[in-house]
Each structure stands twice: as structure tokens, then as C-alpha cells.
Amino acid sequence: MRVLVDVRELVDESPVPSGARWTLAEPGRQLDANLIHLPAGQRVDTHTERDLDVVLVVVAGGGIVGTPDGEQVLAGGNIVWLPRGSTRNITAGINGLSYLTIHRRRAGLQIRKRPGH
């Protein structure tokens, strides 16, 4: 066991670009995790995660998760469960949004011969 990162060092008040600020990359892991930052007003477009449940932990700022059932306001410290099969989008609020996503590790790409070839 060891500390991987201090999110406080990754989430600060200075302007930062949108995208992943940290990704879990430990060999042999069973989980994937990413610290994502969205500047104010930036958005992750509507998408559906068909295979995996995702836990989203808001570490700084706030925003909104939009779903077909409506919108859920996000604030620092919130933990949100996004069940597999759910459709959502995420929009950062006026102070931006930094959040950690955690889910089961995806299986690697496997190249196989097609039947009959």
C-alpha cells in the first residue's frame, strides 16, 4: 500500500485545461480511476456507459449531471453512483468542476481471428 497522489495538489484555483489530471496506472490493478477537471461552463457530452457502474466523487467546484430523468446538482464532497446503462452528461459550474471517477477495469483489446478465417 502507498499513497498514489494528493488530489489537493492537482486541484487548485489557477486556470487549468480540461481533461484528465491523473489516471490510475498501477500494474495488476482491478480498478480504473481518473481525476477529471472541467473549467467553468465546460461539458462532457451526453453518453451512455453500457458496461460499467461508475462512482463519481466531486473533489472541487460544482456542476450538474444531466440525465433523461432530470438534472442533479453536484457539489464538493458529493459521491454519485452512475449505474451501467445510464445516459448522462456533466457540466461544470461557475467555479469549474474536478471529480474522480472509479470503476472496474475494462478488459484490454483482444484481437482474434474471425470464425472461418
Topology record:
Blueprint lengths: L6 H4 L8 E5 L7 E8 L4 E6 L5 E14 L2 E6 L3 E4 L4 E18 L13
Antiparallel strand pairs: 1-2, 2-7, 3-7, 4-5, 4-6, 4-7
Protein name: Mannose-6-phosphate isomerase-like protein (Cupin superfamily)
Organism: Kribbella antiqua
InterPro entries: RmlC-like_jellyroll, RmlC_Cupin_sf
Report on the structure:
- The structure is a single chain.
- With 117 residues, the chain is mainly β.
- The protein has one domain (20-104): Jelly Rolls (Sandwich).
- The protein contains one helix and seven strands, in the order αβββββββ.
- Strands 1, 2, 3, 4, 5, 6 and 7 form a seven-stranded antiparallel β-sheet that branches.
- The model has no long low-confidence stretch (mean pLDDT 86).
- This is Mannose-6-phosphate isomerase-like protein (Cupin superfamily).
